Amino acid sequence: xxxxxxxxxxxxxxxxxxxxxxxxxxxxxxxxxxxxxxxxxxxxxxxxxxxxxxxxxxxxxxxxxxxxxxxxxxxxxxxxxxxxxxxxxxxxxxxxxxxxxxxxxxxxxxxxxxxxxxxxxxxxxxxxxxxxxxxxxxxxxxxxxxxxxxxxxxxxxxxxxxxxxxxxxxxxxxxxxxxxxxxxxxxxxxxxxxxxxxxxxxxxxxxxxxxxxxxxxxxxxxxxxxxxxxxxxxxxxxxxxxxxxxxxxxxxxxxxxxxxxxxxxxxxxxxxxxxxxxxxxxxxxxxxxxxxxxxxxxxxxxxxxxxxxxxxxxxxxxxx
Length: 320
Ligand code: FES
Description:
Blueprint (H helix, E strand, L loop, with lengths): L5 E10 L4 E8 L13 E5 L5 E5 L2 E2 L5 E7 L7 H7 L6 E4 L15 E6 L3 H13 L4 E7 L8 H9 L3 E6 L9 H6 L8 E6 L1 H10 L8 E5 L12 E5 L5 E4 L5 H7 L17 E6 L2 E2 L7 H6 L2 E3 L4 E2 L3 E4 L2
Parallel strand pairs: 8-9, 8-11, 9-10, 11-12, 13-19
Antiparallel strand pairs: 1-2, 1-7, 2-6, 3-4, 3-7, 5-6, 13-14, 15-17, 15-19, 16-18
This protein binds FE2/S2 (inorganic) cluster.
The site of FE2/S2 (inorganic) cluster has 13 residues, from loops.
């Protein structure tokens, strides 16, 4: 895992929607924060709540702060609740340098952005950049209702400033977002780049609809795991370097068990999204539950994400 050693302090917090809170993270040392590619994220270390990853919505004009938007996840592991309930103006946190591969490709042809819910956050800086460079872009953005759509006013302003913005609400007030037809309408534009960030089902539909396109023109990021974590348990994990063996009981992931055992293992999102916990598999069959590896990589059975995936065999031997 990258180091999480940039000290920041919460300068401001404001309610964006009933479920989304925005936090302005300012440099605790008064230094400019690193620049970032549109779409990048940072890991945020927050006391006892652990580490979570959040997309950077923007950096302030004087480069001294970042804006992140955090949706309260009732089913999450407590990180978003900690930020909503415990983090105040003045709370100190540590963050990593900006990173991530879901970033805007600076090219002259159409950029088509598809967002579901809080998935708008990495796309906003991409849109701002495309707009600043005068590049063509369009946004298709779905949310539960106008009140629950994060950054709706900003998006509407971007539309008024010349962008093509299509908003969809699942409360029945607009037609639902049809991801397949959005992709189809760009079939004649082979050089257009398509970006999608949203829940697993939306990303799956987007990928299925885009399967015929050149792979380098299709970009996705999920904000949650596509599948349930492998917590069925009932198998052994052997760490080849230390020689230790650990039983994974029902209700736990491999990562849970290794952390409890005091093993020094890297991780970040804990949901099979970021790849920070990637571990080489030396023996045994993996039950892959991530949305990180390609099908070929999964079939190779040589690597796995220990935060979400489990075992189909009685024992897994890991290069740890
Ligand atoms: S910690 Fe992010 S994929 Fe495992």
